[in-house]
Write a structure and sequence with these properties.
Radius of gyration: 20 Å
CATH class of the largest domain: Alpha Beta
Strand content: 35-45%
CATH topology of the largest domain: Rossmann fold
Distance between the termini: 62 Å
Strand order of the largest sheet: 9-8-7-10-11-13-12
CATH architecture of the largest domain: 3-Layer(aba) Sandwich
Number of domains: 2
């Protein structure tokens, strides 16, 4: 029986087609979107989810997109108690409050793909660390020096908590805006897990890069290579290797894309 079928009794028959048919699970929390037609039944829907799925302790509704540079979620609790949970992924524990910090399960494969690319003893800078989405898996499995930058105070709190929970000792948390903080070492590898409008941060990435570096650039839209090459040239770098792939769809004809870019300084 589908998720929607389990909830049919919560709304009048003429509204049943508007019930959600999919959900996201983060730890013990169930999250889904709820169309306006059935929002007035949200309490009954939330209670039904808790009754049918005992593994959930809390039910939340996604009320809008992730917003602003702090990447804050727009999520409302409709049933259950508490919005903190522990989500486990690829052996990493992520403590989080789903109403305060984002977590995209759509990036799961990307987080897994990134780890084998990282080489021992690299200096890695994560410009948008969040609660450790990319950083923790790398630091747990590869002996690197990693600087995790984050400006959202709530995300910093959970990032530090997750470093302790996963017994990680090779990550330095740097709280603040990546464009203004000071990092004591240049990077072999730079993670730019932020979108949209990521290009505004490319000058900072090139300032942080060693003479040869790899940048993992996330964005949406077209002509990403041209954008990166233009910023590289302005910073005195040349793109020597480039590949891109789609991570997920984020809207009609709009994809979240990752560009894996190798740059070198001083080449003509």
């Amino acid at each position: 029986m589908s998720f929607r079928d389990q909830l049919l009794a919560t709304v009048p028959e003429q509204l049943q087609e508007h019930l959600p048919n999919t959900y996201q699970q983060l730890g013990s929390i169930c999250i889904f979107s709820l169309p306006a037609a059935v929002k007035s039944y949200k309490q009954a829907i939330g209670d039904a989810v808790l009754k049918v799925y005992p593994r959930f302790t809390t039910v939340c509704v996604q009320r809008g997109p992730i917003s602003g540079e702090l990447r804050q979620p727009t999520i409302e609790r409709i049933a259950g108690n508490g919005t903190e949970t522990v989500h486990k992924e690829h052996g990493i524990l992520f403590h989080l409050d789903v109403t305060k910090v984002m977590f995209s399960k759509g990036n799961l494969a990307e987080r897994k793909l990134l780890i084998p690319l990282v080489q021992p003893n690299e200096v890695v800078i994560d410009m948008f660390a969040g609660i450790g989405y990319f950083s923790l898996g790398i630091a747990k499995q590869v002996p690197v020096t990693l600087f995790a930058i984050e400006k959202n105070p709530d995300a910093v709190f959970y990032l530090k908590k997750n470093i302790v929970a996963n017994k990680i000792t090779n990550v330095t948390v740097v709280e603040g805006d990546c464009r203004t903080v000071s990092i004591p070492q240049k990077a072999d590898r730079i993670l730019m897990g932020y979108f949209p409008n990521t290009a505004q941060f490319l000058p900072t990435a090139f300032r942080m890069a060693k003479d040869t570096a790899t940048i993992h650039y996330h964005d949406v839209g077209k002509h990403l290579r041209e954008t990166i090459e233009r910023h590289a040239k302005n910073a005195g770098f040349t793109v020597t290797a480039f590949s891109e792939h789609i991570v997920k769809s984020v809207g009609p004809r709009t994809n979240h894309v990752v560009c894996d870019v190798v740059v070198e300084k001083g080449l003509r």
